[in-house]
Design a protein that fits this description.
The structure is a homodimer. Chain A is α/β, with parallel strands linked by helices. Chain A has 2 domains: 199 residues, 3-Layer(aba) Sandwich (Rossmann fold), CATH 3.40.50; 90 residues, Rossmann fold (3-Layer(aba) Sandwich), CATH 3.40.50. Helices cover 41% and strands 17% of the residues of chain A. Chain A has 12 helices and 10 strands. In chain A, the strands form 2 sheets. Chain A has a 6-stranded mixed β-sheet with strand order 1-2-10-7-8-9. In chain A, strands 5-4-3-6 form a 4-stranded parallel β-sheet, sandwiched between helices. In chain A, strand 4, helix 4 and strand 5 form a beta-alpha-beta unit. The radius of gyration of chain A is 18 Å and the shape is globular. The N and C termini of chain A lie far apart (45 Å). The mean pLDDT of chain A is 94. At the A-B interface, helix 1, helix 4, helix 10 and helix 12 of A face helix 1, helix 4, helix 10 and helix 12 of B.
């Protein structure tokens, strides 16, 4: 593997006094909202493109991974295509195109993302099909965030779970450093496939994309590569109500001056919902990203 | 003077790629939104309380200086009173009280802030009356931000001006480091007393508190101590329209994931209004603070 990630921006560590004293918790906020392209996904995408020989990359994403892959390809001078639902928000399509990538817009009622990916795989046999989470290079890229956390003296870390790429990377970083910490997943209650899978000991996918406000976790299931890491290193997965996600997002605004996207507020939502579990612990909450449409955000902080 | 400011949180330096490429500028964002109490004012307030022997402090502020003074007094175990207009937003009164200070609410139609300060000065002869900007300890405290900027390789720095405390501190930090940089003030066009004063060579106060959206600059004039520093070290003062302030605030949201208050967006607003002046320069924009009511912010990002 190539040396890790000179291009990565270090994460932002905050100990916001107002939020800590409101909750009476030793809370450390670990924010990836200022990472390049606005989410931790850039760590993964950059590591993939850096370490693969292909000159062309194809990914599927209506959100953060698409932007991250597009920007990584721009930096490393590769061709990039991002398959996106045709009704993706204009802001997200624009972002992908501004990084010089092709936005391949599909009508998901006519062709599924997986089918379209298969079509492109056959049309472009030399391109690398980049998964947003189920790829060793993705997990390793994400583990660079975990590397930044091993010296913070944390007792517990709460991390949003979608496909499980970020939490798997964190597990591996702490294993590599030979340190123990309680690693806790935070998943929307209405998209609780990872919690169910961990309890059952096998992957149990959602039947449909759950329409949680935490749109970064609308994955159908964890991955074949991430699940064993989760089984090995994740202590528990907390299921978070939509209300607590929104409460977390609002508290970041009012008590920490932090703009985050709903998915990024999952970990604080999990803490709010289980606050007694975190008393007398130094607990880190990972804010996975900050990209959210202004209209959605305005509604959430004003009324949500 | 006591050694400077162990309690201060280092500023947050961002080089947001989306914003830089949108504006095609070598832009460096210097954000005090994550400073304790959410604005640079804590640097000043803490330095004042640390270096004065009094056991009681009185300040006048409906905004950031009040919170900063209250928190500094809490940390250093002093008594604190903040004179605030009785119609100040609840969020601001609450913040001052949560830090253990007394909020002295006055009806400004019956007694002016200055009159009330004089009343308290007579009632409490042993208390220190803390100015938000016109105090050597305030300027010195603010200069700790400037100290963090001298090694960034900037050609120009744009800084919001209200009473002139922050820009004066920055001037003194660069003088102390024996470095030259273009220091530019950003002032609301409808509250342009500093620009007028700099042009005239004498302090020209506003007659009334100007109702700019950048409420941190609603001061009547620059200070007797700050004005000579401004004359000596500030290259120019740009007058910013209300529209450009709001545009700056929105761009921070959409292109940098940064929540800031309207006053904090003044410096980016000045750059937007004079963009050609900053071509081929490495320009730092100081975001002075992040405290803004959710209803106001929601309105600005959604429609403003």
């Amino acid at each position: 593997m190539k040396p890790l990630l000179d291009a990565i921006r270090p994460t932002t560590i905050l100990e916001p006094e107002k939020l800590r004293s409101l909750l009476d918790l030793d809370l450390v906020v670990i924010s990836e909202t200022f990472q390049h392209t606005g989410s931790f996904k850039f760590r993964a995408a950059y590591n993939v493109v850096l370490n693969r020989p292909e000159s062309e990359f194809v990914g599927v994403s209506s959100g953060n991974f698409g932007q991250a892959l597009a920007y990584a390809c721009k930096l490393l001078d590769r061709k990039c295509t991002v398959i996106m639902p045709h009704n993706s928000s204009k802001v997200k399509v624009d972002a992908v195109q501004k990084y010089g990538a092709e936005a391949d817009l599909i009508n998901v009622n006519e062709v599924s993302r997986v089918e379209r990916l298969e079509q492109l795989r056959q049309q472009r046999p030399d391109a690398y099909m980049a998964s947003a989470f189920d790829d060793r290079l993705v997990i390793e890229g994400n583990s660079s965030l975990g590397d930044e956390l091993v010296d913070l003296g944390l007792d517990a870390i709460v991390i949003p779970i979608g496909g499980g790429g970020l939490i798997s990377g964190t597990v591996e970083a702490f294993e590599r450093a030979n340190q123990t910490v309680e690693i806790i997943g935070a998943e929307p209650a209405m998209a609780n496939d990872a919690a169910k899978s961990l309890a059952a000991g096998r992957i149990i996918p959602n039947k449909f994309e759950p329409q949680t406000i935490a749109d970064g976790t609308r994955t159908l299931s964890v991955g074949d590569l991430t699940f064993p890491v989760i089984q090995r290193g994740v202590n528990s997965i907390l299921e978070v109500s939509e209300e607590k996600i929104v409460e977390g997002l609002k508290l970041y605004f009012t008590h920490a001056n932090l703009k985050c996207e709903p998915t990024g507020a999952l970990s604080l939502g999990a803490v709010l919902q289980n606050v007694d579990q975190f008393r007398d612990k130094r607990v880190g909450v990972v804010v996975s990203g900050g990209n959210v449409d202004p209209e959605v955000y305005a509604r959430l902080i004003a009324n949500g």
